Structure formats: structure tokens, C-alpha cells
Amino acid sequence: MNNKAKVEAENIAMSYGTNVVLRDINFVIEPGEFFALLGPSGSGKSTLLRLIAGFINADSGRLLINGIDVSAVPPWARNVGMVFQNYALWPHMTVSQNVSFGLEERKLPRPKILEKVRAALALVNLSEYADRRPSQLSGGQQQRVALARTIAIEPQVLLLDEPLSNLDAKLRVQMRNELRSLQRKLGITTIFVTHDQEEAMTTADRIAVMHHGVIQQIGTPVDLFDNPANRFVAEFVGSINLLPGRVERAPGGSLLFECTLGRFDLGDVVHDSGEAIMAIRPHTLSLSKTPGDSARVWVQGTILEREFVGEFVRYTVKVHEQSIIADQAHHVGRAPHESGTVIHVGMDPAQARVLPSSDSEIHQ
Ligand SMILES: Nc1ncnc2c1ncn2[C@@H]1O[C@H](COP(=O)(O)OP(=O)(O)OP(=O)(O)O)[C@@H](O)[C@H]1O
Ligand SMILES: [Mg+2]
């Protein structure tokens, strides 16, 4: 099974009546890539997946698989396999009958079907469960049957719509790892829909963040985390402090950013003078009783609250009427700071990003 397809969207738009669900969707998914569509409920993820599968059509734009426009190709002729959120297994059929169904529809000879069913069940470690019915399986096992059924038809593109959402927290983590290693083994181009940022970050090669039917940014998990394109992405992927401020041109010509934490040169400030937002991750801030190393900008504040998480302590520090979150790693023998303590917050300007003050890319 070494089918790998390139999937491209060109200016795709789609509406249900007056409700615009997808706007100007563009992406290139490379052969063999594990690509995640990440966004809140209603952002258009499932609609985009259904469109790739061919169950619905775009109003405008093109969808290409291996460079060929498939906009007019029906689902069954696209060689795309989809695993639905609720698995959609047939309850009256055994595991192996569920898996063989799609192969029988394709009119393969019986021995060939048996061989493919055996191989698919072995891949997902369900060989011993071939004769059970779905009701006799756990959620994780049913999920694997749905996956085996789709893999058995050897699709060029695998579409997964929130495949882990019915599982409990522990099984989700286990299954996402299994899914990732299976995808690596098969090398099938995979598009994975989730609203869980951790799931997307830990499994995908690249992620498209969606909001209100618009792709806000496409990038690797590290790109999105370190260089969010706007406020929405910054807040959706991980924890972040967003500090309003102004970009000003210093007499020498360089651009300085001024906010609660002080006035400093952020180097690669992309926005011209005017209102902007500084984004800084809580774990990159330092707290110290006295101002510490000189590479950081230090400002005095007061600890309002602390939350002991275990691996780290999350402090809310009040600095000039602004609340700032600072996460500090916890170690045995190190007592957390008390609420009310006067503390210095140290920021490394290299860790800060300046974002536009409003997300003009987001359509309401
Ligand atoms: N068949 C339909 N008819 C009318 N509107 C629809 C239809 N399907 C989806 N929508 C609307 O399209 C928008 C996007 O829906 P979609 O199911 O793609 O979101 P999603 O990102 O998958 O959300 P979730 O995380 O909740 O599954 C929503 O506003 C939804 O109400
Ligand atoms: Mg959905």
C-alpha cells in the first residue's frame, strides 16, 4: 500500500443558503503528509472534509488530487476513504464483515477479499476480534474497525473526522499515537479534523487553523506556536499573554514597542506605527525577588493568584493594572511564591511577538 496523493484546494468557497461556510480556501497537502484541520465548533472543518470526499460540492474554486481537478468526480470514484466521527459501523455485521463490505462492493475475488481483510485487521491489531459484533467491542476497538474498513480499500487519501472524540482521555492519547504510527507505516496522505489543539500539535506534520470558514494560518506545530499570524491563532494554540500597546518609531528610525512591560526594541516588528498587541507565552517569563539577568526586561508587580499544577506553578501577576500569567517550573524543595508577594517579572524580548490589534482576516 504505497498510494500517496497530493491534495490541493484553490480558492474554494461554499455556502448553505446565506450562511457562508467556507471562504477562499487554499492549501497544498503533500503526498504522505499528515495534515490537521484545527478549529472551534462550526468553523467549517467537517464541511471541508466532506467536500474533499465528494459528498458536497463547492460553489466556486477547484479541488485537485494529484494535479487533476476532481470537483465533478463522484465520491466513489475519488479513491478517498473517510472515517466518520461516530464510526458508522454496521451493528448486525461482524468485524470482518464490516471490513470486507467495501471490498465486496468493488467486486474483488473472494480469496483477495479475505487476504485484504486479514491484512487490515492485523494492521490495527484486531485479528482476534474478527468474529465479534461492534456491540461486543470497546470504543477504541470500534474506532480501529472503522479505520481498518477504510484502509482495506487502499485509498489514496485518508480523511478522519474527529476520530478520537468518543474515547476517554487516556485512550485518546494512546489511539492518537497508534494512528500516527499507522499513518507513518502506510504513508497515506491523511487529513485529520480535530478541535483539540494538543491532538493536532502532537500528531500532524502541518496544521491549518480554521475560524469562521477561513484558514487563519497553515504551518508546522512549531510555526504556529512560535509565530502565530494573528490573535485568534495565538490564543487557540497554547496559553498566551496578549498585551495591548503601541509601535512607535524612535528618532533613530527603529520601531519600538511600548506596553505594560516597558518600552523595547523587538527587532523584527512587522507592523508599522500604531496600536498593536504583544504576545508572550507564560512559560517564557521569569519571576524573581530581585531583577535578574540583564538580557531580560524586568518590571515589578504583585502576585495576585497562584495555581499549583504540579510540573509548574501558574502565577497571575498584576503589573500596572494589567494581569500577566507566568508559568514557573516546579522542583522538589522549591516553595512556590505566596499571593501578595512583590515580584519582578523578567521578559526576554526575543520570545515576544507583535500582532495586529485586530484580526482583519476573521469574517464575522
Ligand atoms: N447541511 C447543512 N445545512 C446547513 N448548514 C450547515 C450544514 N452543515 C453544516 N452547516 C453549517 O456550516 C457551518 C460549519 O459546519 P461544520 O460542520 O463544517 O463545522 P465543524 O468545524 O465541523 O464543527 P464541529 O467541530 O462542531 O464538528 C456551521 O455554521 C453549520 O451550522
Ligand atoms: Mg465537524
Structure description:
With 364 residues, the protein is α+β, with helices and mostly antiparallel strands. The chain has 2 domains: 7-232, P-loop containing nucleotide triphosphate hydrolases (Rossmann fold, 3-Layer(aba) Sandwich); 239-356, OB fold (Dihydrolipoamide Acetyltransferase, E2P) (Beta Barrel), CATH 2.40.50.140. 23% of the residues lie in helices and 35% in strands. It has 8 helices and 20 strands. The protein has helices at 45-53, 95-105, 110-123, 139-152, 169-186, 197-203, 221-226, 231-236, and strands spanning 7-16, 19-29, 34-38, 60-65, 68-69, 80-83, 157-161, 189-194, 206-211, 214-219, 241-249, 255-259, 262-265, 274-280, 286-288, 297-308, 312-319, 322-329, 342-347, 353-356. The protein has a 6-stranded mixed sheet with strand order 6-7-8-3-9-10, sandwiched between helices. Helix 2 (95-105) crosses helix 3 (110-123). It is elongated, with a radius of gyration of 25 Å. The mean pLDDT is 90. The structure holds adenosine-5'-triphosphate and magnesium ion (MG). Residues 45-46 line the site of magnesium ion.
